Amino acid sequence: MLFQSIVFFCCIALSATFTLGQENTSPKQSSESLTGTWHCQFDSPFGLQTYHLHVAINDAGDATAHAEVDARDEVRKVEFVNVKVDNDSLSFAEVRQFGDQVFRIEYSGERKKKDLAITRSFGERGGQKSLATRELPKPPPKEDPAPVVEVKIDRLIKDAFKDSFLVGMAGDLPSRYSEEELKLAAEHFAAITPENCMKPERVHPAEDRWDFERTDALVQWAEKNDMTIHGHTLVWHAQTPNWFFEGRDPETVKRRMKQHIETLAGRYKGKLQSWDVVNEAINDGGNSETAKTENLRNSDWLQTLGPEFLTLAFKFARQADPDAVLYYNDYNIESGPKHASSMVLLERLVADGAPIDAVGIQGHWRSGRVPFEDIEKAITDYASLGLKVSITELDVTIRGESGGQFGRRRFRSSTPPSLNDLNAQADDYARLFAIFKKHEDVIERVTFWGLNDRRTWRWGQHPLLFDGNNNPKPAYASIVALADSDDDAAKKAPEPPKNVKIEDGGQGDYSAIVTEAPTLAGMTIYRPEDLSAFAGEKKLPVLLWGNGACANTTEEHKNFLSEIASHGFIVLGIGPLDQLQQRNETSRQRTNSSQLVAALDWIIAQDTDENSIYCGKIDTTKVAAMGMSCGGLQAIEISDDPRVTTTVVCNSGVLPSRSPMAAMPILTKEDLKKFHGPVLYIMGGPSDIAYKNAMDDFSRVDHVPIVMTNLDVGHEGTYRQPHGGEYSSVALAWLNWQLKDDKASAKMFVGDDSQLKRNPDWTIDTKNLEQ
């Protein structure tokens, strides 16, 4: 796992793109217009940060830049280096140091009319946007400490499973934790894993230098609070100083490894129950060929000592602390070729006499995509080798990536989860703990990787049992309830999803139903009821749908979407099924475009899952991003996804300035460049409030085929009319043409004698359109 400063850098500080506003709108744009103070804000894992950036240029043309950064707990000063100005261009750099690691952040800027677009990057990572102005920004709103939903806890999780296995958490306690957080950790958890302070880079930064201040403090705090301690980690390819491998002499490197393990594990002999001896030694991914091998990562350890480095590490650890339980720890080893490689590796270690006792499955999973069957099989596979198992770094994210490795990641939003998100996460956690309890004879410990949704490397993805204000979440209650239930209830299969019919299933060849899936939280599925017709060459194209007002329900559009599904499409619409017929507060929860991308990920995975009813029935190469009003903007926002074939924007267009509606996607006309396939606009004529925005979009898009259609019905369209009204026939013609290659449907749009041109109720404009 990564230390938190790296997480901070990856998510926020090292990759950002922001725009500096400029009051001077004189046609002459010189370097002098760059001078002065600018203010902008960025969201971060630790709250909102306000940057006060100062640029100065002397008479010789030499420039300087510095900033103060108001963060949640401090004011940080930044002196930029290598500041250069060339007329309308500006560049500078920031150098930061974390431990022995030095990071350089590059900035480059160019004037664009009244703005200065600045790109701030670390390596190849992308960024976030902010608007800096001469005016001081308004203070951030006070964070609402109230939970999304009140959850009552009548039993502590550590007590609920005390006869089955230990339940722990990770963190470098007590340093920098509040008294409330320390109380929470001691009260609810029975074990602790140091998140970063025992990693080689932190505790042993130089061959002749050790830093035990935080490790000693953690051990003392854990002993005081009667918590078991698990050490993390002795040998790892990451966060290990380069001095370990200087000279590349195998005997020297072996000696350094031995001394490191002897000193660290020996210092806490008898105080720690267990150690992650070797961490993440197997390559990511793999195939049928690598699955037959150990597929070891080409690390410095492997390069200098060969595969024997693992055996040596375990032997040195046993010598340092004979009573500690010794683990091999890794991520994604529960599934696929990497699991097969882990079995090859572990079998070899056992055969070589390595004193390995247990395997740690890290457990970084994502709600709606937890591989339950793979996890259970992995536990039994490892047990067959005579090894114990622990879930060492458990978190179940609500959104975003969930791999356990350092890599490219997008900025994550601090948007609160919806109640539907939380309930889906709770179901996943309950199913996981049902598996762990079933195999309690093998499972030694289950450790959550962090304390709460603020103290997590997956900040913004709400992965843990407590929210950022230490309130218990539904997941906590679902896990404890499982412990209190009998085995039969814990293993009870979930009820099958409900099915609803709208307007007798539509007018198409395939009677449609509206349903849901337990592994696709917060989405409604419109599809043909009988899927047997879809196999071989005939498959279901995919339609991703976002709702008007960013609503968390497809209720307003159900006639329209059901009609489309009845013609042989699968529609994945934002919003839970229980909001389809009767809406409540849940329907007003915020939604975002990432839900559409997650739904696309899900259906693609279903198409290859032999246990899924959708296996082999989905045309994953034909995808429409589509939505109405706010949902239309969500469709535009995901149109740069290479898997999107076409975009359909209904009663919507990019606004000329930021919308006052908090949930509305923040887009500019530059985002229209995201289109890489044909685009259709279905609008409500001049009385449609989005009409001017849409027509402006149309005037700007010249790089892809685009069609603008209008029916003078206003912003509400015809969605609620029987079978979706006239909008349905236009949308279906476009989808049949673009996603099913139906040339006859193109006649609706193409040519001077197109069906829409001959229809007096409709108007149509086209660009770059060929049949």
**Beta-sheet strand percentage?**
15-25%
SS-based class: alpha/beta
**CATH H-level name of the largest domain... which superfamily?**
Glycosidases
Which strands sit side by side, in order, in the main sheet? Answer: 20-21-23-22-24-25-26-27-28
Query: Quick one: biggest sheet?
Result: 9 strands, mixed
Assign the CATH architecture of the largest domain.
Alpha-Beta Barrel
End-to-end CA span: 53 Å
Output mean pLDDT.
87
What key attributes describe this structure?
nine-stranded mixed beta sheet, 26% helix, 771 residues, 24% strand, eight-stranded parallel beta barrel, GH, Rossmann fold, 3 domains, EC 3.2.1.8, disordered N terminus, signal, 19 helices, TIM Barrel, GH10, alpha/beta
Describe the secondary structure blueprint for this structure.
Blueprint: H1 4-13, E1 16-21, E2 36-44, E3 47-57, E4 63-70, E5 75-79, E6 81-86, E7 89-98, E8 101-112, E9 115-121, E10 131-132, H2 157-160, E11 166-170, H3 179-188, E12 191-193, H4 200-203, H5 213-224, E13 228-236, H6 250-267, E14 274-279, H7 300-305, H8 308-320, E15 325-330, H9 336-351, E16 358-361, E17 364-366, H10 372-384, E18 388-397, H11 419-438, E19 443-448, H12 474-484, H13 487-490, E20 512-515, E21 523-528, E22 540-546, H14 558-565, E23 570-574, H15 594-607, E24 618-628, H16 630-637, E25 646-650, E26 679-683, H17 691-700, E27 706-711, H18 725-740, H19 755-758, E28 762-767
Parallel strand pairs: 1-10, 11-12, 11-19, 12-13, 13-14, 14-15, 15-16, 16-18, 17-18, 18-19, 22-23, 22-24, 24-25, 25-26, 26-27
Antiparallel strand pairs: 1-9, 2-3, 3-4, 4-5, 6-7, 7-8, 8-9, 20-21, 21-23, 27-28
Helix pairs in contact: 6-8, 9-10, 11-12, 14-18
